[in-house]
Description:
single chain; alpha+beta; Penicillin-binding protein 2a (Domain 2); Beta-lactamase; six-stranded mixed β-sheet; five-stranded antiparallel β-sheet; 21 strands
Amino acid sequence: MNRQIRQLGIAMLLLFSLLFVRLNWVQVYTADELTANPLNTRRVVRDFGQQRGNIVTADGVVIAESVEVEGRFDRERRYVDGPLYSHVTGYFSFEFGATGVERTYNDELSGHSATQRFESFFDFFGDGDISADVSLTLDSQMQQAAANALGERRGSVVALDPRTGAVLAFYSWPTFDPNMISNTDLDAARAAKTALDGAPGEPLLTSAHRQVFPPGSTFKVITAISGLENGVVTATSPLFPEVVSYDLPLTNVSLQNFGGQVCGGDLAQSMARSCNTTFAQLGAEYLGPAPMTATAERFGFNDTPPFDIPLTAQSRFPNDYGVQLGVSDQTPPAPIVEGSSLLAQASIGQFDVRATPLQMALVAAGIANGGNIMEPHVVDRVIDNDGGEVLARVEAEVWRQAAVPGVAATTANLMVGVVESGTATSLARSGLTVGAKTGTAEVNAGADSQDTHAWVIAFAGPANATPELAIAVIVEAVPGGGQQTGGGTAAPLVAAMIDTHFNN
């Protein structure tokens, strides 16, 4: 009898131990994953109807607040100028959970962070408000300028401070009104969510950081950096052939310069004129797969930026080009591989290269900031509602050293040349140093369609000073709309952002 009791006790102890281990695994190791899961609405159910802090722009504009309502719930989330900021704030819905900053900072907004719970314990007999406001880095004028410039064209505008990673504007169209999903009329909220899920352009799927596109010629700055840091080119040598097209290695296919123009010369001239032939040859015959991949990955490709808006997509640069078949005729020679023709196309931002607008803004920011890419963030600080105390502040942190300072400075000068005498002369501004790279990206390279995305990446700052603004703009292709260029279509949006920031 005692033996049976002992065996039962051991079995129960083992089961308890397994339960204890599993519970700790869920609470400690998978807590963040479970919290980030959009299907997990437990915290929203807990917090819905309670007092919730405001979300405020850097210049003090309240863009999300809780208001009292009658009915099943005491309060409802209201979004002032909801469509303007929806891809940052997200929504706060009883039925569908929370997205955006509402999700990332849910505990702070609702008063459930560790610090706020501690304060709540000592305020047990009081009626103090333990919720907190979240102050963003966004500037309301910059955000409005982005919306005005883009209008009702599919695309995105991302502007940030390259010195800190603080995001100043973050806008995509189509957008949506988060008030519709956050409605306490749950039937109306369900209907709104269903309609938005099926709406053209997927307005709930932010294109600024959740969708990827071929970056086209804006990627040439990375190819240039790879050539510079590997010592195969300088700004003035070698001289690339002045040609209309480039014969892709191991194929009978020719890669054309835009518009059939004769293009070539040194790296500075080729950057200013955006010569496809130069950069395709540089990637395929002077560098090869390993250097190109390494440089792209230092800039964040094939990785996900640490961003405080959830579900950021990973930009990608293909890294499998097959086995080596020989070497090029250049000095120094690069390996010729089975996929050298694909590498040539990848070197001008085509083939299977894909990037988010956020990623390309970080590329511009890294070049402007001496090669260091700072962690991007839209939240500046969390402020206690009861006493105004700053509970948390987001500090500037380096994400990647993408290039050494000398190479970054040379590339920045190449981009300045694009504005002074190249494809982005419309961005020149008196008293400012502006550098840019335009891009025209084929939607389906090699297909009959001529539709293109229009890109510009840029930086700007006072003359002889560190740039304080980095921008990426994409205006997406219109089906059947034909070619649109970065200099003609996207550059005016960049100009509007520069003028707004510097009060021009």
